[in-house]
Amino acid sequence: xxxxxxxxxxxxxxxxxxxxxxxxxxxxxxxxxxxxxxxxxxxxxxxxxxxxxxxxxxxxxxxxxxxxxxxxxxxxxxxxxxxxxxxxxxxxxxxxxxxxxxxxxxxxxxxxxxxxxxxxxxxxxxxxxxxxxxxxxxxxxxxxxxxxx
Length: 149
Fold this sequence. Notes:
Blueprint: H1 3-17, H2 23-34, E1 40-41, H3 42-49, H4 53-65, E2 69-72, E3 81-84, H5 88-113, H6 116-147
Antiparallel strand pairs: 1-3, 2-3
Helix pairs in contact: 1-2, 2-4, 3-4, 5-6
């Protein structure tokens, strides 16, 4: 791997690590964003990233379940090949939005249960979640419309 690619891979890893993804998961994402061809087998990922096959196995499972990676067929290829999902980050956004909707519902229940001394903070937080629940889908739809225009 060239130095510029290695630095990019580490930058992606550090970025995603801040949001709870183990560093190796970020390294896999980073490399799959810039490698050519755009897919790699687990063995190739382990070798190119200098990590264990076990780490690659557990991280690819995690990234597959999050929708960030997908399995792709490769004619004559040995093993399972992975690439960044075309709309994986969009799917991830939609799952995050669904989580926000669920949490907003819980916040509304908290408003019913909390003592009066907690209501102001809970009302503010609930209002923010209602706003995001209303506005983010519209913004995402505008993005999709723009991309497909």
